[in-house]
Amino acid sequence: MTKPSFPTEQRSQTREDVIDEFLPDLHRSLVEHKGINGDYLGEELWRQIGPRGYYHLLCFLDEFTDRYQWEPGIAGEYLGRLGTFEHWRPYQEEERTWKPRSK
Description:
Elements: H1 8-32, H2 40-48, H3 51-67, H4 74-82, H5 85-96
């Protein structure tokens, strides 16, 4: 089966659209996952995406962990450098509607 070929601009927009839909869903699923032991990656995610995506996501997380000393709150630092609070507010409001698992 041949994969569709898109012009670079269209391919870039398509990728952005897919990512803009996928990542909020991924984030929400992680926030709301209860499961047996709370392990969203091991209990649920591998069933929701294909093996190629799962492999690369886990490898991305390994690479990310190796390169960054990420701690809670650092996301706010990055977001603050890239836009005002007002710029990010719609996404924060979206997140507030989620039902976090109890810790």
